[in-house]
Amino acid sequence: MTTLVIGGHGEQADPLAEAQARSATLAQFFLGDPQGWKGPELAYPGGAAALRAAAVEAGITLYVHAPYVLNVATSNNRIRIPSRKFLQQYLHAAAEVGAAGLVVHGGHVLKNDDPAVGFDNWRKCVERLELEVPLLIENTAGGDNAMARGLDRLAQLWEAVGAAPGADQVGFCLDTCHAHAGGEPLDGLVDRVRAITGRIDLVHANDSRDAFDSGADRHANLGDGQVPAEALVEVVRAAGAPVVVETPGGREGQAADIAWLRERAA
């Protein structure tokens, strides 16, 4: 295996310091309130150009995570329309800082909606986006109406998105906790995902506090949760993609998880 490009999700004020504190070569961060509807903001001194240049000099790969509240799949116009607007703003901001991709959750439809509505809304969204950096759709853990829980739904989502111009700039982020909690065994998961998407651009390597198929999105430190350790490591090995740990414990907890994974995935 080639050298693992790995890091954690840290505070947004100085992503480079966050990566260095974890002895990492990657930093994932938000550009604003993950639970709010305010547009992207960058706190790094000197702004986007300074962060981009400093990251190149330090050899640190950047990824931006979009706010959790964005939901381009829903039929609720009051959520879907601003979600599209903010997603474009975040794509632009991610491009300005030189990010390798923008991660976004797959979203969900309303209780009584046909999931096909959500898949088509995703197609329409991608058609309208200016994809300045790759948009990485992440699988999710719970929700009967979710667009990206389980591989059956992922296949329908990918078919819809693939019909849109610019689909080659839409990639996939595989979260191990979400897969486990969403009822997808990790054994052989990379091959099953690639058979649908043709690609895995990023791995979120997280253990799960809760049981298989629980639907609960609760991350645990690596080796401390319910995900079989060897299966998690094999996902990282087989994917051959950059890795982010989004585990508890801040800098120290994630640094330990990064070291844990480096030792086992080498």
List the defining traits of the structure above.
single chain, 266 residues, alpha/beta, TIM Barrel, eight-stranded parallel barrel, two-stranded antiparallel ribbon, 9 helices, 40% helix, globular
What do you see in this structure?
This protein is an alpha/beta fold and 266 residues long. It has helices at residues 15-21, 47-58, 77-96, 115-128, 151-162, 176-181, 189-197, 229-239, 250-265, and strands at 6-9, 26-29, 61-65, 102-105, 135-138, 170-175, 202-204, 207-208, 219-220, 243-245. It has one domain (8-246): Divalent-metal-dependent TIM barrel enzymes (TIM Barrel, Alpha-Beta Barrel). It contains nine helices and ten strands. Helix 5 runs parallel beside helix 7 (189-197).
CATH architecture field: Alpha-Beta Barrel
Q: What's the alpha carbon Rg, rounded to whole Å?
A: 17 Å
| Beta-strand content estimate | 5-15%
| Structural class by sheet pairing and helices | alpha/beta
Tally of helical segments:
9
Under CATH, the homologous superfamily reads: Divalent-metal-dependent TIM barrel enzymes
User: Order of helices and strands, N to C?
Assistant: EHEHEHEHEHEHHEEEHEH
CA-CA gap between termini: 7 Å
Tell me the overall shape.
globular
Number of domains: 1
What topology, given as strand order, has the largest sheet? 1-2-3-4-5-6-7-10
Helix content: 40-55%
CATH topology: TIM Barrel
Assigned CATH class: Alpha Beta
Mean pLDDT across all residues, rounded? 96
Largest sheet: 8 strands, parallel, barrel
- The total count of strands amounts to 10
Uncertain residue ranges:
none
